């Protein structure tokens, strides 16, 4: 099987990282490039670390073609802190439109409601978040500060194929579980953010890409860490950042550039997902839970006819070396998360296993 007898880890997050990146990190562990120390032990004010963070930012900018009028920020607190920071910083008129498409947009809505008025302009709750509502002609009040979406719902497995028509308002997107999985036109957004532990690196950091004019300097009453201005003015070094995470993510950015960037990554992700979806479409035992046109390339929920059989399959996959396939309790069944770093071989092996399981039980 694999070189280190590693499992194919289908976890929704934290998730797999590219093996070559882990090897590089291992090789630099005891003495990072002659510094005599590990990056974990390094001052965030040192010249060595400055190079690491500068390169991480430059490489991400190159990878996503981020225009100069956007800031790239590395902030702790995960994606969850952004549920609060976004309304605290972006609600000038105290009003925002949210689209409810699953568990993560729902959580963001709950936090935003603590800060201001939230208008849920569209929701797919009526069908347990198995589709993306039509957002081509929403009723958006003129004084809305922003329109918020979760671009890939990690738990429910739906993804936006076409961005909502915001009618000129700022678009804010939670890309946590699809970040860097395909090309992205940054200027379509006011702000993009992503917790990195799904598709990039270790848990403990969020990448925020925000248009400069949205960063306000009239928010002095907000706790200092909660202001985007704090992080922007200090180039993500206001306080001690998650140095280790910035280092690991920087390596993944370089890796993605080396394979040909996000177009190549997208191609590979489409190939991988097709293997699994083709199997589900042909299977009598396993069924996808999501409307086909909005299926996620990253998170693939599926069910059998009964909870007992679901549990049996999960146990069997685990015994066979495929980890973390139990579905989230709100959807049930199984969920295979096949992020960037999941090799095609992992998906092929899973499909082969499920095919055999079905044949033997069929
Ligand atoms: C995991 C996830 C979050 C929460 O991330 P944390 O870093 O754990 O706070 C938010 N949004 C989406 C889409 C996620 O997948």
User: How far is the first residue's CA from the last residue's CA?
Assistant: 28 Å
Question: What is the N-to-C order of secondary-structure elements (H for helix, E for strand)?
Answer: EHHEHEHEEEEEHHHEEHEEH
Strand coverage percent: 15-25%
- How many domains? The number is 2
What average pLDDT do the residues reach?
Answer: 97
Shape: globular
Poorly predicted regions: none
Briefly note the CATH topology name of the largest domain: Aspartate Aminotransferase, domain 2
Biggest β-sheet description: 7 strands, mixed
Helix content: 25-40%
The number of helices is 9
> What's the CATH architecture of the largest domain?
3-Layer(aba) Sandwich
* Bound ligands, each once: pyridoxal-5'-phosphate
Helix-strand category: alpha/beta
Kindly provide the name of the CATH class of the largest domain: Alpha Beta
**How many strands in all?**
12
Question: Secondary-structure blueprint of this entry?
Answer:
Blueprint: E1 8-9, H1 19-27, H2 47-64, E2 70-75, H3 78-90, E3 95-100, H4 103-112, E4 117-123, E5 146-150, E6 170-174, E7 191-195, E8 206-211, H5 228-233, H6 243-258, H7 261-282, E9 287-288, E10 299-303, H8 307-319, E11 322-323, E12 334-337, H9 344-361
Helix pairs in contact: 1-6, 2-6, 3-4, 7-9
Pyridoxal-5'-phosphate is lined by residues 13, 78-80, 104, 150, 154, 174, 176-177, 195, 198.
Write up this protein.
The chain has helices at residues 19-27, 47-64, 78-90, 103-112, 228-233, 243-258, 261-282, 307-319, 344-361; strands at 8-9, 70-75, 95-100, 117-123, 146-150, 170-174, 191-195, 206-211, 287-288, 299-303, 322-323, 334-337. By secondary structure, it is an alpha/beta fold. It has 2 domains: 21-258, Type I PLP-dependent aspartate aminotransferase-like (Major domain) (Aspartate Aminotransferase, domain 2); 261-361, Aspartate Aminotransferase, domain 1, CATH 3.90.1150.10. The strands form 3 sheets. A 7-stranded mixed beta sheet has the order 2-8-7-6-5-3-4. Strands 9-10-12 form a 3-stranded antiparallel beta sheet. The two termini are 28 Å apart. The model has no long low-confidence stretch (mean pLDDT 97).
